[in-house]
Amino acid sequence: MRSDRIYGALLIAGAIIGIVVLVMISLGLNRKSLSLIPFDISRKADVEMTDFRFFSTRNGRVEWEIRAKSAEMFERKHQALLDDVHVTFLNDNGMGMALQGEKGVLDTDSKDFQIANQSDPIHVLMNQDYHLYTSTLDWINKTREIQSAAPIQIEGPNGNIHGTGLRVNLALQETQVLHDVVAHLNR
Length: 187
What we know:
The chain has one helix and eleven strands, in the order H-E-E-E-E-E-E-E-E-E-E-E. The protein is mainly beta.
């Protein structure tokens, strides 16, 4: 009788884990992918500019802003290829997160973007206290989420967190490290 209870508990736990895995896989498959490789390298940009700025508003206020030292605009593909990128996400108090990266791709239609670094990690300053480091970040405008599949590191006054994969939901003000999480907390 006791072994039946254990078997039943294991079966229920297995079913729950299976459902969680299926949900995570379906969320990953629905993610739009931007490429930092231009769609046609031989094609010249429609517009080239320096001191590029692009912002998105929500409910009448600026939600985020991208600044880049230079940009190449491809009008038909609705893409801007960016160099030396700075992004600021603003909350109701006026400041939320700031990040900087070497390269970026902005979809000017959907307002999704990807920032990537090849040498030093992208540095994200969150609420003035926490620092996040990773090699690539994607902003999905429709869901208002920042995502990454790359290794990440978060440092703050309460400790450090290392792992792989990241999901930041701005609406819920929630940050998740998705895999291989190791946390070192300060006492």
